[in-house]
Amino acid sequence: MKDLTDPVPRVPAIPGIAWRLLERAEVPLLVASSPRLSGADVWRRLGEGQECWVAWLDNAAVHWRWETRRDAYLPYLQRHARPLTGDLWVVEVYTQPSHRGRGLYVAGTLMAMQRARDRGDLRLIGLIAGWNRTARRVAEEKLQRTVVGTVGYWGPGRWRCHFATGEIALDGDGRVFIPQRSRPASQMLVGTTI
User: Fold this and answer.
1) What is the dihedral of CA 108, 192, 147, 72, to 10 degrees?
2) Domain count within the chain
3) Which of 14, 32, 90, 177 is deepest in the core (most CB within 10 A)?
4) Has residue 188 been placed in a domain?
């Protein structure tokens, strides 16, 4: 695990890409670019206090990442994340298929590390689906992130049973969190099983 007090590698420049925090007026453009986001979902996330950082190519969103320091709903787990003091959670990341393999995930994560460090955060925590081997390889090999456990569920609908392994825990309300260590880790990567 890499401590955020250590230097963060320089963010690679990607020609033609403009990175910025999503503005209210850009929500329709983001929704139009997304096969996965609805306007209601975007407004819910913004209402929870999540930030959406977007990589724009002209007027098209080609990569976006949702980050938070507050409780946030994780739709793929049907649970909430519970960040602790000093945590920045990466709730979801998406890159348009036509722009994958161009370094957007790496650049976005390095920028998130820098933002977190500048704000005094100690840990960057992200969830990666267990089936997404490419994202996990990039996170571990290029970004020196460490898997600290797995969170997921078994069973359908109301019979669903959530579980957490390793350093990951579920609190009394079922929120996902990672307890602080005696010496905080700056980056954690959580595998999800759905």
Assistant:
1) 60
2) 1
3) 90
4) yes
> Residue 111: how many CB atoms within 10 A of its CB?
16
pLDDT band at 7 (very low <50, low <70, confident <90, very high): confident
Separation CA 164–CA 166 (nearest Å): 7
136 lies in which domain range?
A: 65-193
Q: Does a structural domain hold residue 21?
A: no
- 52: exposed, middle or buried (Cβ count in 10 Å: 0-12, 13-18, 19+): buried
pLDDT tens digits, residue range 94-150?
Answer: 999 999 999 999 999 999 999 999 999 999 999 999 899 999 999 988 998 888 899
Query: Is this prediction's pTM over 0.70?
Result: yes
CA 168 to CA 170: how far, in whole Å? 7
| Cα separation, 139 vs 189, whole angstroms | 8
